[in-house]
Structures are given as C-alpha cells and as structure tokens.
Specification:
single chain, 254 residues, alpha/beta, Rossmann fold, 34% helix
C-alpha cells in the first residue's frame, strides 16, 4: 500500500493527516477515521494507534484517511468541537477530490468524541454514504460545569504536541459548541444511509445505555453491536473492529 502525508488548512490552522491507498490502480471506496478526545494516559508502546487501523482497512480495499483534529497530535489550534466538525468537513473535501476515490462510497467511522462529530457532520453532508460510531456519547457531562470544562481545556492544551497557546474560544462558546453537536439531535438525519453503532458492554467511560438511546433515535437502516467484555477503547478490541470491517465491506459491496 501507499502512504502519503496530508496538510489541510482550516480556519488558518494546519490540520495534519495521512492517506493510505491500495498500491494497485483503480477506484476504491474511502474511509475517514476520526479519533476521540485525548485522555492524556501514558502511551502503550505496543499500540501503533490509528496508523495500524488504517493499514488494516486499506488492506481490505479502502482508501483510508486519518488526521488529528485541531488541538491534538500534530495539528495546530485548541480544542473546539464545532472546529472539529470543520476539520472533518475539510478531510471529506480532500477525499472527495482525491483520485481513485469512488465519490459514491465515502464512509466515516468515529470514536467517542470523534463519533459525536461524525454524526453531526454526516447528518449535514450527504457525501457520507455510511457511518460507524464507536463508543459514542450522547453528551459530554463536563461541558455543563464551568470548573470542569476549564480544567478539561487546560489539560488538552497540556497534552497537545504542538503546545498551541493562541487564544481559544470562551468557555461559554466552547460549551455551546459541545451542546450543539449532541448526537441525539442529529442521528435521525443519517437515514436512509446505513448506520452501525458499536459499543462495549463494559464501557467504563460512556454508559452502554447511551448506545441504546442513539439506536432508538436513529432511522433505518441501522444496526447495533454490543461487544461483550469490551471497554471504551474499541479501536484496540478485535471483536469490535472485525464487526466494523465486515459491515463496511458489506455496505460498500466489497
């Protein structure tokens, strides 16, 4: 497979990503992977992160894009959920223009906070042909508490690789942005495009009941996979990722 580095400009910020493509020329379905909110836990030296997942899905016939939302990884800026939505839109713009991508088969798979943003963007952007949510919250409780939100924002700045200290939005604007993208407001607008909701039965961060709430609110066609024994970090759960891969291959005709 071929790998290339991507640098997008969104709101004057550099958003850094990578694209993995099958080596053989042709037209392929595309998949955009959206990471969750960094938790600042010590890195696992055995975990290659999203590049490993991108390689796996690319080997199965997808052109795969991964990127860092603003304020995370190598991307510039500060945490901002509506800003994350614009970052994802820019990633979709890039994929849509990329040679070799089947414009009618562009899927998105989001994890945790990235899943929230994925629902919001997919509800508005009909270029998204199918959606997978993994460990998707219905809301972020800390956003309703000023002190907790302030502590969260400072922690995100601390763990950001770029250490970007440019002025960010006010706490009120940040909280309103988080409230605006609540998946319960948007998930019914994914229909009639296929939707897969994956959640761990032992998720220690987002209660499994939230997956059931999203499933009940969503329109058809939809599927719900509750993974026995799985915790919040579904990216590293083999059963969860196998279910996602099988479903994506099926809805994309692979």
């Amino acid at each position: 497979m071929d790998k290339s580095r991507v640098s997008l400009e969104v709101d004057g910020l550099k958003i850094i990503g990578e694209v993995y493509s099958p080596s053989k020329e042709g037209t392929y379905p595309a998949l955009c992977l959206c990471h969750g909110i960094p938790r600042g836990t010590p890195p696992d030296p055995t975990d290659r992160g999203y590049p490993s997942l991108a390689e796996r899905f690319c080997a199965e016939g997808f052109i795969v894009m991964i990127f860092n939302f603003r304020g995370t990884g190598l991307s510039e800026g500060n945490f901002d959920m509506l800003g994350w939505a614009r970052d994802l839109e820019a990633a979709l713009d890039y994929l849509y223009r990329l040679g070799g991508v089947d414009k009618g088969r562009i899927s998105v798979m989001g994890f945790s906070g990235g899943a929230m943003v994925s629902v919001y963007v997919a509800s508005k952007d009909k270029r998204v042909s199918s959606l997978v949510t993994c460990s998707c919250p219905t809301k972020l409780a800390f956003a309703a508490d000023r002190e907790r939100l302030e502590a969260f924002i400072e922690r995100q700045r601390t763990i950001s690789i770029t250490g970007d200290r440019r002025p960010s939005l006010s706490l009120e604007e940040l909280a309103q942005g988080i409230k605006e993208i609540s998946p319960l407001k948007w998930i019914d607008r994914i229909s009639p495009r296929p939707l897969l909701i994956i959640h761990g039965e032992s998720d220690e961060v987002v209660a499994p009941s939230q997956a059931l709430e999203l499933y009940q609110r969503a329109g058809s066609p939809k599927e719900l996979v509750m993974v026995r024994g799985a915790r919040h970090r579904l990216r590293t759960d083999e059963n969860a990722m196998s279910a996602a891969l099988d479903w994506l291959k099926r809805v994309n005709g692979l």
